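Q: Is it fine to ask for two folds in a single conversation?
A: Yes, each is treated on its own. Send the first.
Q: Here.
A: Result:
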Amino acid sequence: MYRLISQHTDFIVIDKFPDISVHRDQAECGLVTRIEADLGRKLWLVHRLDKMTSGLLLLATSKAACEALARQFREHRIEKYYLALCDRKPNKKQGRVIGDMARSRRSGWRLLKSRENPAITEFYSRSAGPGLRLVLCRPATGQTHQIRVALKSLGAPIIGDPLYHESVQPAPDRGYLHAWQLCFTMGDEAFRFIAPPLNGALWSADSVRDAIEQFNPPRQMRWRGAGPDRAPAV
């Protein structure tokens, strides 16, 4: 279900495997329950990843630590970088996707033109081999399905996404969205965690790995930051 990345007095960081629910779903126990059992301690979930999404997940070891970390998420002070694989080019190579999100059919979401409480996603994309496009995403907000809907709106839904990509044969072995890097501070100490994508046949292609290295380190790239109200939508 997961790989333990780091243990700290105030938090733990794991690499969640794809197709694992954070909370109890149809399985006998959810991911958090399993980690608590494995480590023998109570944990607080600071943020969430979709079931299909793999990668870095942060859990606090106390209620106070959870509140401190959750506040950083709310104030957009935690840097999150995601990798996605698409089978077509987005309609722009880089930029931002900004807009409110509303419920759609089949438990999905759709992007609106309004900006009352917009989801904001910055992205860069590059070729990752024939028929593949690697997209580096930095979400400035944390709304449900935000990156998945953003890439769908750019004409490049994520490979294997059961909601936003049409069915293809043969079916992909997973939805190709991965929480790659996480940067934040706790007290006076700065932390940066990296979890390379390991689960999924496409991640192992040399062309994909080379493309990922071209994006590393992502925080040195030119990011425009939040600025939700004045920023033009892509």
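Q: Second one now.
A: Result:
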Amino acid sequence: MLARDRFFTIIITIVIALIAILALFPLFSLMISSLRPSSELMRNGITLSIPFEQLNFSNYTYIFTEAGNYWSWYINSILISAASIILCLFFSSMVGYALAVYEFKGNRFIFILVLLILMVPFEILMLPLYQLMVGLQMIDTYLAVILPMMVAPIAVFFFRQYASGLPKDLMESARMDGCTEYGIFFRIMAPLMLPSFAAMAILQGLSSWNNFLWPLVVLRSNTMFTLPVGLATLLTPYGNNYDILIAGSVMTILPVVILFLFFQRYFIEGLTVGGVKG
């Protein structure tokens, strides 16, 4: 029985390793292509072949020394993503926590509204949001990108489900000790919700970092563009800078990898919503 279990474990490990290798092929091809000259890319496209005699770091040299707007886009994306993560985690966790632990009139109705908004595509909400940003005179500002993402329905739902599994006895004990409701949340419940914060930080960070449509709508000046919008401007009817575009795309992967490595300890635990060890 033990030998059979070990055999199946080896087979599953091999299958998962093969799937992982296949999933990494596009990334490998992208990294190799970022080291190739533009003429070679236009001639043969993105391939898995490795032309060692043509590989060089000229594309990255150009990004680090001459592509001034690229670093403006990079800083814009970092600032917007960081602000979106912090604000979304702060407000969404409070809303989800309140819907999970407090019984008040309209609780279930508000939760149903959250689910309904979750089912509405963003493209439908984009026009009224744009009119709101115009009315608030926030077009071409960081706030125009950040404000609509401050309270995400998926984050509210996620935190509500996680907070539903927290032990309520801790809240009663804290109240008996004279702790306020805000103190209960920030000093007792929030530390218990750290895995959910980590998981949602990764998911929200990916969403904000890769967001293309909304920044494209509300941002105007070239220096305010985020990375997805800025890199898209490299493709024009008069010439396509595929070499710079691909090298720039490789550089955009680094913050996402760092974010995952920083929070990976809690990621799986955070996705296992409602599990509380007693």
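Q: Anything structural to flag on that second result?
A: Two points. The longest strand covers residues 235-236. The chain has 14 helices and two strands.
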